[in-house]
């Protein structure tokens, strides 16, 4: 994975810098309500943020993290896009683009721009991705970055990311291991399988992390009604990190977690 280390140095960051001038900025002082300030700080510092300033986040994550309901989160996203003009949000890909993020978080150093590029290429919305490539090029050449063109929002979103040989090898290794351990016949070429494993690689997890999750959930679910969920979209989905960090449970002790997981799936989270 030639670019994985570049991605990890930022994706695994434990803090985000917010300049003190945020609190004295005229726009914030004159236009932002207390609710606006809270939600904007959340958009700038939540665990899904990355070095490029464009990230995918679910409504469920926003609800769980902020305490707001889904309708309030949608209203605030629209307000920040249409009233404050500080973000763009693509409702199809669930990606947030923080406008002007580059002004405070990028430099023209090759290390920084290489790290940015390694994340930008995985952005699903073509408009967001193309815009950030233009900004990168301007910064590298000491030129003024362009303003975001809202016509980009209407461009189609590219959800299926072109195959990267190193990542595809990891996908194959993980699926082969799953099939060998669980007696299944999943294909590593399936778009959904590749998407979930790539997403975990993008988060900074490794092949060995995924094999560990397979072992843990196999030990926990084998011989139970949950054995049917020993599949890529479950193992490498949104609960992957909690699976990785859990102790190996007996079948009965994990039942409550399993029911909670089923409720999430039923609600489309």
Task: Indicate the topology.
Elements: H1 4-11, H2 26-31, H3 34-45, E1 54-56, H4 59-66, H5 70-82, E2 87-90, E3 95-98, H6 101-105, H7 110-120, H8 126-140, H9 165-182, H10 191-202, H11 207-221, H12 232-235, H13 240-245, H14 255-266
Antiparallel strand pairs: 1-3, 2-3
Helix pairs in contact: 1-7, 7-8, 9-10, 9-11
**Biggest sheet, open or closed, and with what strands and sense?**
3 strands, antiparallel
Write out the strand line-up for the largest beta sheet, numbering strands in chain order.
1-3-2
The sequence of SSEs as H and E is: HHHEHHEEHHHHHHHHH
Summed up, the helix count is 14
The total tally of domains equals: 2
The rough form would be described as globular
State the separation between the terminal residues, measured CA to CA. 30 Å
Radius of gyration: 20 Å
* Low-pLDDT ranges: 1-9, 152-160, 264-269
Mean pLDDT across residues = 83
Count all strands and give the number: 3
Strand content: under 5%
Backbone structural class: mainly alpha
Helical proportion? 40-55%
């Amino acid at each position: 994975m030639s670019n994985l280390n570049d991605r990890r140095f930022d994706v695994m960051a434990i803090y985000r810098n917010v300049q003190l001038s945020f609190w004295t900025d005229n726009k914030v002082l004159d236009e932002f309500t207390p609710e606006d300030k809270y939600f904007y700080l959340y958009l700038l510092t939540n665990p899904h943020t990355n070095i490029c300033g464009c990230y995918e986040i679910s409504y469920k994550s926003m609800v769980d993290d902020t305490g707001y309901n889904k309708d309030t989160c949608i209203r605030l996203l629209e307000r920040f896009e249409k009233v404050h003009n500080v973000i763009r949000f693509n409702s199809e890909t669930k990606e947030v683009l923080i406008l002007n993020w580059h002004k405070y978080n990028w430099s023209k150093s090759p290390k920084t721009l290489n790290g940015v590029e390694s994340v930008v290429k995985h952005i699903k919305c073509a408009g967001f991705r193309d815009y950030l490539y233009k900004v990168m090029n301007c910064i590298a050449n000491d030129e003024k970055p362009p303003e975001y063109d809202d016509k980009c929002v209407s461009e189609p979103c590219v959800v299926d990311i072109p195959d990267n040989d190193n990542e595809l090898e990891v996908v194959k290794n993980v699926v082969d291991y799953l099939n060998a351990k669980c007696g299944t016949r999943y294909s590593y070429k399936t778009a959904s399988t590749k998407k979930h494993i790539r997403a975990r690689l993008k988060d900074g997890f490794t092949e060995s992390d995924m094999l560990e999750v397979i072992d843990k959930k196999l030990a926990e679910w084998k011989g139970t009604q949950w054995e049917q969920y020993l599949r890529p979209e479950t193992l490498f989905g949104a609960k992957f990190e909690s699976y990785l960090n859990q102790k190996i449970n007996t079948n009965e002790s994990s039942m409550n977690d399993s029911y909670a997981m089923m409720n999430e799936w039923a609600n489309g989270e």
